Amino acid sequence: MAETVNAIEAVAVSKVYRRYSHKRQFATLKSALLSRSLIRDLRPDETFPALRNVSFAVPRGSTYGIIGRNGSGKSTMLKCVAGITKPTSGHVTVRGRISALIELGAGFHPEISGRENVFINGIMLGLSKREITRRFDEIVDFAELRDFIDAPVKTYSSGMYMRLGFAVAIHVDPDVLLVDEVLAVGDEGFTHKCLDKFAEFRRRGKTILIVTHSLPLVERFCDEALWLGGGEIRAIGDTRRVVGAYVTDVGHSEEAAIAAEDARTRARVSSDAALEAAQPPPERHAADPSATLSDMFRSSEGRWGSREIEITDVTLAGPDGEPRHLFQTGDPLIVTMRVRASQRMTDFVFGVAVFNAEGACCYGTNTWLEELGSLEFTGEGEVRFVVDRLDLVEGTYKIDVAVHNKDGYPYDYHRLLYTFRMKSRTKDVGVFRPPHRWEFSPAVAMEPARRLEPRQPAGEPHSAADEPA
Amino acid sequence: MFRNLANLAKYRALIQSLVVRDLKARYRGSVLGFFWSFANPLLLLLIYTFVFTVVLPGYRPAEIQPYALFMFCGILPWTWFSSSLSEASNVLISGGNLIKKVLFPAEVLPIVAVLSNMVHFFLGLPILAGFLIYYRLPLNLAELAWFPIVVFTQLLLTLSLALIVSSLTVHFRDLKDLLSNLLTFWFFATPIIYPMSLVPGLGKTLLDLNPFTHLVVSYQEILFYDGAFGHWKWLLALLVASAGLFLFGYFVFDRLRDSFAEEV
Question: Interface pTM (ipTM) of the complex?
């Protein structure tokens, strides 16, 4: 390319929204006149900065992604680019015809037919009548609505409505396409068609700006990306690096959220336990050793036992020994129990079990089942349960830890008090992922696997190629 | 502002198709369809005729006979005016989706409201013509030539007020309720159901301050009264004033435009 022209340039864009105090949610003319605040009421008083000094440039022909959490200013940024709202300060320059896929079918009138709506929507988006006539069949075929095009739009399902909106917007033939999280528009097939359409746009050298939560989409399509957090640029530039930084950040706050949730559960359980302590201790049942296995199927979180041996602390950690709550499928997992016995104990069994969100036991074991006989324990100690590869599918899991005697009499049973979350590169289903691979005879030709998944959270070693240059 | 105003010409196709959509959508699903455009003013006429000739016969000078026709000359344009304004007061809020989600020239919405009501006004004209023929009122072609000018003046005046009302309602929602009361008052402060000649001195001065008076008097002089169209000076003055008001209304609208996407 001889020269790089920027299709979109945003320079120091800030956007301040007016926030109403609930007292005057709707300013009324009467009150404005009475308090002589007619002019003042038209000015923002309490304000909320949605964007702070955001600058970026999108070269013509490239695809640019904006990611960030809810409320981070992504959509406001897109609206500023689209010209729907004006930035409070700074400016945005866009070169070429824009089509914004922000809300699909926003201008549809429910009472009139799809055909008439296509024309009106097209005109709203800047096409002439002749252009629409020429593209009409293409639009209808793309929306897969040939049989319904003359029915009033109010009879459409929401999927049909969105498809028609998408079809019109995409056939405007813009130079710059703005997309706000609209790919959840139809069934799998339609989504693929949309993605193909985007790919075609790219091939034809159009500029695309995507606002999305779908990190795989950003990684697959975008040449560059921007991560907004709290209205400010958190990272900008190379897609993989930006997405990686974002995923790490999401991981951190997810960690914090799980840790806080767990702490709350434990606080509740220990106050319940204090109540129970007032009651006589459970009878020592000399039943079979699988008694604790039935404890495992109590549905709610809890902690019980005679505390002759007490589990004082439990941590989940990755291979580096750092406590954490997020794991990738295939990561090692180390469960560390700190235990204490006030007197000399000779009969004890340590157990661990993992449950998924539906409450199904994914795996449970104890030292007795694995024929590790107990000798003795006094004072303080540490027990580690080390899993070399945690091959669970993506999801949230809780674990039980317990220490009891050989007959199943519980010393200290922690039921569902520790949570961890599995992340996976593959959206496979079930509970357990056995280590596996696919093999094909030469006649079965397969594409090499695409890697669409989000970057790994920090703490994982990145390969050299992943590092920003 | 003037650049935006010039852009209005570009939105011709958009305005046109939205007006057509409005008209189609309005009566879609109703049994009588477009007939309602005729039926509404006719029914209104029936009610007023009944009230003022049967219930309150009272004193009526000969100059406003036939009374039904006299009233019709005023009610038809008034209906255009008042329904345009009450629709305009709501149009930005109900069209919020367009303003918030699509790059859409907001002024198109109040303009469409005024224009689609103008079409209804035009659809009412054949009924008026029917009355005129029925009563064999002499029509003067020279006077009829003024008719488009009256309509254009009313269009400008209505557009200006629609722009102001629609943009202010976004900020002051109670303007909508205020407006419906104001329009009732305004109706009776305009010589529609009574002739200007019945109004005594001070009242006449006050009525002269009401711009719609001059429109209605013009319609009446052109269509109803015999004799030359003597009100043309007032009409031309109103035309100039309306043009000025239109610029002012557009200015207000343009100033408030950026706030719509946030406040709607």
Answer: 0.78
